[in-house]
Specification:
The protein is of the alpha/beta class. The chain folds into two domains: 206 residues, 2-enoyl-CoA Hydratase, Chain A, domain 1, CATH 3.90.226; 48 residues. Helices cover 46% and strands 14% of the residues. It is built from eleven helices and nine strands. The strands form two sheets. It has a six-stranded mixed beta sheet, with helices on both faces. A three-stranded mixed beta sheet has the order 5-7-8. Helix 1 packs parallel to helix 3 and helix 5 packs across helix 6. The longest helix is centred in the middle third of the chain and has 19 residues. 35% of the residues are buried.
């Protein structure tokens, strides 16, 4: 399904079919003429798309990508001109919608793989930060450019700080310097950097490794990281993690996976050996 702002590819045989098999959807930012900058329409469509895809039991992963030269250049200039006349209340309502979009993407139960092929600026870094795996072209550049406009990366801030770390965020929030893909990887913001002509193949490999794992286990692993990150390892956390492993070991998928491993067969979520 293609709209003026998004292209959504789902498993199937039609022209909008995803390329990564029967359990993977793709969401492509589709405003190449404005470097995939977002406005209120993009925010609404991304929110709706990830709510729908995240609730689809047939899916195991989502790829987030962009058409054109840039991944996402942040906010649309025309939209910014409109916002210049907003009252405080209108600005707050607008910011709330952006914050909700980022939360919906971040809390999507399915792993989200970001394909970063070009410029990833401002709000675009927020979109990248909410992904679970980021694969970038070595030609991509990153920038938290808000301070150049007298603004700040507030709504994206919690996700970017988690993704690159507090100390790096201290620098790049206040300097608004550009980062190369290699630098972003050195900071831990990006997981892998590859040549442009290898980007699609590497994304496909990452997606394939996710799909090869137990679907329920993958969702549980993603949630586990969110729930334990930064927490003190106290009695409550130890009790919680022990309960989780007991739950999944005793569950149908866990039992089937262990049986398949011991018998040297493929688990039920993969083709038979």
């Amino acid at each position: 399904m293609t709209s003026p702002t998004l292209e959504i590819r789902r498993p199937g045989n039609g022209p909008d079919a995803a390329r990564h098999g029967p359990h993977v959807a793709e969401v492509w930012l589709n405003r190449p003429d404005v470097r995939n900058a977002f406005n209120d329409g993009v925010i609404a469509e991304l929110t709706a798309a990830f709510r729908t895809l995240g609730a689809d039991p047939s899916l195991r992963a989502i790829v987030l990508a962009g058409h054109g030269k840039a991944f996402c250049a942040g906010a649309d200039l025309g939209w910014m001109k409109t916002m210049a006349g907003y009252s405080w209340e209108q600005n707050r309502a607008d910011a709330d919608r952006l914050a909700e979009m980022l939360w919906v993407l971040y809390s999507c139960p399915l792993p989200v793989v970001g394909r970063i092929h070009g410029d990833c600026y401002a709000g675009g870094m927020g979109l990248a930060a909410v992904c679970d795996v980021l694969v970038a072209s070595d030609a991509a550049t990153f920038c938290l450019s808000e301070a150049k406009l007298g603004l700040l990366p507030a709504t994206i801030g919690p996700y970017v700080v988690r993704a690159m770390g507090e100390q790096a965020a201290r620098r790049y929030f206040v300097t608004a310097e550009r980062l190369s893909a290699a630098r972003a990887a050195a900071l831990g913001f990006v997981h892998e950097v590859v040549p442009p002509n290898a980007l699609d193949a590497r994304v496909a490999e990452v997606v394939a490794t996710i799909v090869a794992n137990g679907p329920a286990a993958v969702k549980a692993c993603k949630q586990l990281v969110k729930d334990v990150a930064g927490r003190e390892i106290d009695a409550g956390l130890r009790d919680d993690t022990a309960r989780r492993i007991a739950d999944i070991r005793a569950g149908d998928e866990g039992r089937a996976g262990v049986r398949a491993f011991l018998s040297k067969e493929n688990p039920p979520w993969l083709p038979r050996s």
